[in-house]
Amino acid sequence: MTDLPEFDAYLSLAEVSEDDHRWAFGTGFTDPLAGLDVAVPPSIDAAALAAYCLMLGDDALIYSHRLQQWVTRAPELEEETALANIALDLLGQARMLLTRAGQAEGAAGSKGRDEDQLAFFRDEGEYRNVRLAERADADFAELVARLLVFSAWRLALLRQLTSAADPVLAAIADKGAKELAYHRDYAAGWVIRLGDGTDFSHARMQAGLEAVWPLTGELFTPHPVEAALPGVAADVAALRAEFDAAVDAVLAEATLRKPESRPLARVAGRAGRDGVHTEAMGYILAELQSIARAHPDATW
Amino acid sequence: MPPSADWPLFEVFLRGKRGLNHVHVGSLHAADPEMALRHARDLYTRRNEAVSIWVVPASAITASSPDEKDPFFAPAADKVYRHPTFYQIPDDIPHI
What we know:
The complex is a heterodimer of chains A (300) and B (96). Chain A has 300 residues and is mainly α. Chain A has eleven helices and no strands. In chain A, α6 runs antiparallel to α7 (167-195), α6 (140-161) packs across α8 and α6 packs antiparallel against α10 (240-253). The longest helix of chain A is centred in the first third of the chain and has 31 residues, at 77-107. The N and C termini of chain A lie far apart (48 Å). The relative contact order of chain A is 0.13. With 96 residues, chain B is α+β, with helices and mostly antiparallel strands. Chain B has a single domain, classed as Phenylacetic acid degradation B (Ubiquitin-like (UB roll)), CATH 3.10.20.520. The termini of chain B are far apart. The A-B interface holds A 1-2, 9-10, 12-15, 25-29, 76-78, 81-82, 85, 186, 189, 193 and B 7, 14-18, 20, 23-25, 28-31, 34-35, 38-39, 42-43, 46-50, 80, 83, 85.
């Protein structure tokens, strides 16, 4: 008899190279920013780029945190893993965008902060995420309604950014767009399943949609930082068509009504992008930042 | 399919990047095959393991019984000549 190695399903699936035998899982991972020059192109307003990357990074960081809070609370184990995967995708986007924000800060002449300093040592008023990202989901229907709205919007946004004049931002957007396509698909699947399900699930799904809808207006409101970045920042007002097409198709299949509620009011003309947040934000930051602030510069 | 309180079981098969055959890696619960495919993606391909997924309802699998172990498998145990062990396999020909 030949001495056959013990058969391991995962080992056989992994793309194992000569010096990689210790990995039982897949290898061949790629770095989305490999080979890119991280210097900010001189034609770009570096301070505005830093502010813009903070906006997009904060959206991902805060939304990721909200999704992480579903872990141990999701209705099925399989859904819990799906939500954790989505949260991890967004956390990865947040890390790259906050890192880019810090690089742009440095290029603008100030002391560039790293991703941890930006995530853990800014106060609420310095966070630039849209208020949709910070909303707590009251139930699974609200969760998938909010995820559909957020991912349909962010996918359209990142698709525009794949041709941004900043090569790093374009590379981050290119990676993120593939992730967002799956997030939107996942959310759409559940919105259709619940909307076109029983009378009870339909009513709950419609209620979830109504609950998050007032937060959509802010997504398409242009901001002065975007105007300062021609050729770089996305034109958010122009995202509406792709967003509407995607969401309308899902709602039609789900037999749901598109809400007509008014957008959540701004405070003295300011909203999430200006650092004005809802009450939920303080609780998120307390949970997110308390360890890092209690033990500054700790490593583990 | 009648309504049910519990989702049925599906078996998951993955094919890795090397172009090998699909391999059984585990099982999961899902309401229908489409959801099973997504769950399989989320549970079993998180570490870059696969480029293709099959899901099969566990109820569709006919399995051999442990009671039949001897009549099924014992007769092959002494027939070493069925293995391709009597000639050299070149180093650069894997997966035989």
